[in-house]
Amino acid sequence: MAALERPTLCLVIDYGQRPAIAEARASEAVTNALGLPLQHLRLDLGDTGGGLLRDDTPLPDAPSPEWWPFRNQILVTAAASVAVRNSLHTVIVGTVLDDRDRHADGSPAFYEALDRLFALQEGAVRVVTPAINETTTALVDRSGLGEDILAWTVSCHRASLPCGQCPGCWKRARVLSSLGLLQTPDP
Ligand SMILES: [Zn+2]
């Protein structure tokens, strides 16, 4: 998404997730390679989450093992605040079609509601989701990026050293393999 949209400012958030170090490192490598500015933001949401991203203990009624309730709502709202601080007015979220299969906060209805919620408040911030009807594979393919940059990406839910055995690791392997990149064995 960053390669295609070339945002004025990229944001990576350490909200207490276990792979936060890897995500920050990957964000730095990718934005450096693309020549884009990156801001790090720290929000300690550890006491609000659960599942694979926090401690492998699913929360009651969790729809998926990595569920962290209201996470996207909180993170996009934090991004909107950063936008206001920088006199920016659009938050670009890299959510994709596959996200809505697992979480209600990956659906078009969710992002449309969030956009309307921001419109009720000061700041004139909009939320856009350019790839919400596109699969991860299609988005990565459209980005035109090669292994030199994609090799830096991480998707593990559990750790900063990818476990290779969680839905995030499986998805990354599946997507990159389907594009003939970073050949890895099927999970
Ligand atoms: Zn993993």
Task: Note the topology.
Elements: H1 2-5, E1 10-14, H2 20-34, E2 38-42, H3 71-85, E3 90-92, H4 99-102, H5 108-119, E4 126-128, H6 136-143, H7 147-150, H8 167-178
Parallel strand pairs: 1-2, 3-4
The chain binds zinc ion (ZN).
EC number: 6.3.4.20
Catalytic activity: 7-carboxy-7-carbaguanine + NH4(+) + 2 ATP = 7-cyano-7-carbaguanine + 2 AMP + 2 diphosphate + 2 H(+)
Family: Belongs to the QueC family.
List keywords for this structure.
two-stranded parallel ribbon, Rossmann fold, 7-cyano-7-deazaguanine synthase, QueC, 187 residues, EC 6.3.4.20, nucleotide-binding, metal ion binding, globular
Write a structural description.
The protein is mainly alpha-helical and 187 residues long. It has a single domain, classed as HUPs (Rossmann fold), CATH 3.40.50.620. The protein is 40% helix and 9% strand. It contains 8 helices and 4 strands, in the order H-E-H-E-H-E-H-H-E-H-H-H. The strands form 2 sheets. A two-stranded parallel sheet has the order 1-2. The radius of gyration is 16 Å and the shape is globular. It starts with a helix and ends in a 9-residue tail after the last helix. Bound molecules: zinc ion. The site of zinc ion has 9 residues, from helix 8.
